[in-house]
Design goal:
Two copies of one chain form a homodimer. Chain A is an all-alpha fold and 526 residues long. Chain A has 22 helices and two strands. A two-stranded parallel ribbon of chain A has the order 1-2. The longest helix of chain A has 35 residues, at 471-505. The interface between A and B is large, with 162 and 162 residues.
């Protein structure tokens, strides 16, 4: 029993963690309990029961179905239920009256036909793209219509049935809205606001994590790809949050459409608050996050730049990425605090450090484009590109570099050496020159592996050929990485702009103006 | 009225198009109508009504709530409703008996407390991550429990109320399942199968579209970014489908979880068909699609390689991308036809053409790393990278190239000429040598723009500084593009593997074996 006791303790603890993670969850649960209890009291006490009768049961159903997590979603669902019930009620009364007037024999035929028609029509309409958000409303129309028409037929007076149903639904709806709005309301707008700010942090964290991993990575073995792609890289928590950001478009849209139903509240005090602008900012942020995903792709790519080469540009890469992450984080903080702070300074910092990175790459671009061994080409048909005339320059520089450094390496051209087995140089301690020399030697010591001879036998499914990388492409991988980083920075301009648009439309407090007026006041007092 | 008539015609036409687009929509609507009609007949005819009584109304509710688009989703919802109702029924009967036994005064207290408790508990449990898929079941528990307990209290005999409710729900559920499964069933498995195959086509199309645009693009003006990012690039239909593929993870998962509820059917005849494997293949495909998104990002990047440079590698890029797209498309076709065809040949083709591309980039890498003007650096503080020793080689090749070509271009170093205004050379007609010469000259004629002097005034929000690109980085943009293409190809290995896994687990027909046996038979008959 000790073991069982232990797991029970664990279970209690995980429930406790879950509650502590977001106290709103507990509040929501208690509120639902309260709302159902309030409606039940109408039946449990004798006085209201004698007034309302058994029909009051429908209000319990209404509470159970209408009560949603956020205020906006509850209003939205309530709207669907109210309009649906009303439409269905009117329709049902009209049909029932027509059926009654048409005589005893035709009556059930008319009722049956109308039920079939309404069933088919509402089902078709809820598939129509622009009506999909009202899916629940169509369900309500269908079953309310059927209930009123059918019970009207058996119990007579469809108008009374409809009225009874409608006002018991109204009571349920009133209790739901009352409890949901007045007792610790959970606003969809607030949730949307926090979600967006959180997404900014996720992108910034993920960028930093990715850069750190890229520079740390000392060519050690990676876990098998197919495992990591399904587990979503368990050792990279920020990456998962970034991917969650990419998949958050539906969440943001749902919250925004709920938030539109909410009255002005709390920090979001002015009417027609621009909730849809949040979705737009989210879209631009996702556009930036695609670059982080691409960076992450290079990090886990099969084709890898050697570690020595990466750390050559370490300080520039770190500088640019840290500034970029800082900018993203400060944008998120601005949204979170509903402030407008001038971003020119941070943007300038990011641009300056990115330019430094560009220039560093620019100056040392020869590192990215290794010269190549002749014998790789002699055995193969020449492509049209190999007899161009203007390549003489590169040939010259190539032969110079070959003369300059140990051509002894060329003696083992058919011994494919994996990257991981080369001793990783403690580069920080060595002089830059030495690192470069080693680098160049290393690029030479990697011969292209021969093209595999593929068996094209019919049963060769399990022995699939593998993609191979030329060594020059491994160096270009670094260029790709930095280009993607630079592209990320380029997209930040748009992000800053969209956040600025949001700030203007949502009338965030202008920290700049505040500072400006403070300076003015200071000057006046001096 | 002519105008109104016209719009009505249009409306009819769009409805017609919608129906024709997927005939299943009409079938679904008619099926819902039929199911509701069938249940209503139980009340409209006198004989069954006398047997079942008014409680039969609950079966209408059940049909309206349980009837879903696909068979699997209906089963899933039915399971939720059945288990929820049963649990609620048992609980309610127990609580009601306890309440009755405890005497007249305490009875309403016990009932009220139990309603509050069940309300709070079910609401809390449906927020628990692993129980979220059963959200509907918890709703059912809540309202069924309340209804039985409350009406039992007022009308006596909670057991009878519970039984009446349960069997009318059972009738509704039976009719729903009967109509949904036996009349033109819409299988979630079939939908999932087709959706996945469609996603393969979307990725292949999007890749080809992206490459075509990249090579076509003659540096003409792009529409404003902020517009295109919200409209999702209206002139690129395949891109939107690719993005839909990226957002399809929830759709695939929903369909797969529905499909698991379905019995073997049609082409998916064997038990425990690996539906979850479809989700995995979808994940790997999305992993490939991220590279297409990154390629698309380079296509719409602010930092662009000049058109001349792009078309230099046109044939290699086209070759590699066409083979890759073909492979992706044939994988999709294999899934769609449930065939296994050997992929070694196509993979080899893709790899060979990608290697050609790599080699071409490798040989002409000097084009990607332009040499740079000295005056750009003289005015700025030198970074630590600028006084390295090993850069002598590149300096040598630089000075050679400078001597070789018109240094007259250097006379206009402060006249930033936009790319679009240069006459786009009809490159195909010129000799390769000439194109290269022009290219080199052009790289020289682009001076770095001076660093903007940023005003750091406090009210400068609308005048945000813009990211600028050094010209060498513009050339590296091509390297990025090709690297991403190569990485896409590298990921295809995993895609082929995962499709192969799916084919094995789902026992697709082996076209290889078929061919093999055909050859055997041929040999024997000869």
């Amino acid at each position: 029993t000790g073991n069982r006791n232990f797991s029970f303790k664990q279970w209690i603890q995980s429930v406790w963690e879950f509650c502590k993670g977001d106290i709103n969850r507990v509040i929501f649960s208690l509120k639902v309990g309260l709302a159902v209890l309030l409606v039940s009291l109408l039946i449990l006490f004798r006085a209201p029961y004698e007034v309302f009768g058994t029909n009051i049961i429908w209000s319990i159903l209404t509470v159970a179905i209408m009560f949603e997590y956020t205020v906006g979603a509850t209003f939205n669902r309530g709207f669907n239920r109210a309009v649906g019930s009303l439409l269905a009620g009117v329709l049902a009364v009209v049909v029932a009256q027509v059926a009654i007037c048409s005589g005893h024999v035709v009556e059930p035929t008319i009722i049956g036909a109308s039920i079939f028609l309404i069933g088919a029509l509402t089902s078709f309409m809820k598939l129509w793209p622009s009506l999909v958000p009202y899916e629940y409303g169509f369900r309500v129309i269908l079953f309310t219509f059927c209930l009123i028409v059918v019970s009207g037929y058996r119990m007579g007076s469809p108008v009374k049935t409809a009225m009874d149903r409608l006002y018991s639904i109204a009571i349920g709806a009133f209790v739901t809205v009352f409890v949901n709005v007045l007792i610790f309301p959970i606003w969809a707008g607030e949730q949307l606001h926090n979600e967006l700010a959180k997404n900014f942090d996720a992108v910034a964290d993920s960028l930093e994590e990715c850069i750190r991993k890229y520079l740390e990575d000392d060519d050690s073995d990676h876990p098998e790809f197919s495992k990591t792609v399904m587990d979503e890289f368990p050792d990279e928590p920020a990456y998962r949050r970034c991917q969650a950001t990419l998949n958050s478009s539906t969440k943001l849209e749902t919250l925004a459409s709920s938030a539109k139903w909410e009255p002005p509240h709390g920090r979001f005090w002015h009417c027609s608050y621009p909730w849809s602008e949040y979705v737009k900012v989210g879209a631009v942020l996702r556009y930036c996050a695609y670059e982080v995903m691409a960076l992450h792709g290079v990090l886990h790519s099969e084709i890898q730049a050697p570690h020595n080469l990466r750390i050559t540009f370490q300080s520039e890469i770190l500088d640019a990425s840290n500034h970029a992450a800082e900018l993203v984080r400060s944008l998120g903080k601005d949204i979170s605090n509903m402030m407008r702070t001038p971003k020119s300074t941070s943007l300038k910092k990011v641009h300056t450090s990115t330019e430094r990175l560009q220039r560093a790459i620019d100056m040392h671009s020869y590192l990215l484009t290794s010269s190549h061994d002749d014998q790789n080409y002699s055995s193969k048909p020449l492509t049209k590109l190999s007899h161009t005339l203007s390549s003489t320059l590169s040939d010259l520089s190539y032969s110079l570099s070959k003369d300059g450094q140990g051509s002894g390496d060329l003696e083992l051209p058919l011994n494919p050496q994996p990257v991981g087995t080369l001793p990783s140089a403690p580069a920080q301690a060595e002089s830059y020159h030495e690192v470069m020399k080693k680098q160049q030697r290393r690029l030479h010591s990697w011969p292209s592996r021969e093209v595999d001879v593929f068996d094209e036998g019919v049963l060769e499914m399990d022995n699939l050929p593998r993609m191979r990388a030329l060594e020059s492409t491994t160096a270009l991988s670094l260029a790709t990485f930095t280009s993607l980083l630079i592209e990320f920075v380029a997209r930040l301009d748009h992000l800053v702009e969209s956040v600025n648009d949001l700030a203007v439309m949502a009338r965030f407090k202008d920290a700049g103006v505040q500072k400006y007026t403070e300076i003015l006041i200071q000057n006046q007092t001096q």
